[in-house]
Amino acid sequence: MRFENIDDDPAPGDIRITYSAWGEEALRVPHYVNPMLSIAQEPGLVLFPDERLFCTMRTMTGYIWYSVSADDGASWSNPAPLLRSDHGLPILQPLCCCPIYTLSDGRFILLHHNNDGRFEGCEPEDRRRNRRPAFIALGEFRPHAEQPIWFSPSKQFMDNGGVGIGPLKRIDIGVYPSFTNRGGNDVLWHRDRKFFLLGKRVTSEWLADLEVPTK
């Protein structure tokens, strides 16, 4: 969904919305058990220097998938598994959001959980327990590559030790976050199991040991 005139502060009834990848053109990723069922959800979007849009999405395959648009979101490439680099290994992820953000220096970070859903004996559908720890992979734009962004190995960014809070009995961490760039500070904001809002700086010092493949 694209809100065409939202910056003009229209009345709700005057908001103009256009849709892409809709109906028969929807992006589809087969379920790991039932391939007739598509699970491709919760897109994360960034804009590349060449004006292409890049979209990550959660699936039920045990890893992240992606799609690219070269026409400002009017059409999208067929989804494909997100690899570390062309012909590299897929980036693991349970059924959970896997947002990608642009850093102040123009590089990218991918927030994910780096497991295929079977973390510590979990089943893939066990969303209360397999969404931890949270990892970051550093991404760099590769304009001429088949996959136009390549990623470093994943580095653990935060964890909660599997300790639950209150009646929710959830131990996930880093899910459904947001990201801000202000004054050169890159901050990841996330809710801590729906009780607290936390902000964590992603610094160049912390990212220094993450190396993105060059070939």
Uncertain residue segments: none
Record field, number of beta strands: 14
Q: Element order, helices and strands?
A: EEEEEEEEEEEEEEH
Mean pLDDT: 93
Structure, explained:
By secondary structure, the protein is mainly beta. The protein has a single domain, classed as Neuraminidase (6 Propeller). Helix content is 2%, strand content 31%. It contains one helix and 14 strands; from the N terminus they run ββββββββββββββα. The chain has one helix at 204-207, and strands at residues 2-3, 17-18, 41-47, 53-58, 65-69, 80-81, 100-102, 108-112, 134-141, 149-151, 155-158, 178-182, 185-192, 196-201. The strands form four sheets. Strands 7, 8, 9, 10 and 11 form a five-stranded antiparallel β-sheet that branches. A hairpin with a 7-residue loop joins β9 (134-141) and β10 (149-151). The chain is globular, with a radius of gyration of 18 Å.
Please describe the topology of this protein.
Elements: E1 2-3, E2 17-18, E3 41-47, E4 53-58, E5 65-69, E6 80-81, E7 100-102, E8 108-112, E9 134-141, E10 149-151, E11 155-158, E12 178-182, E13 185-192, E14 196-201, H1 204-207
Antiparallel strand pairs: 1-2, 3-4, 4-5, 5-6, 7-8, 8-9, 9-10, 9-11, 12-13, 13-14
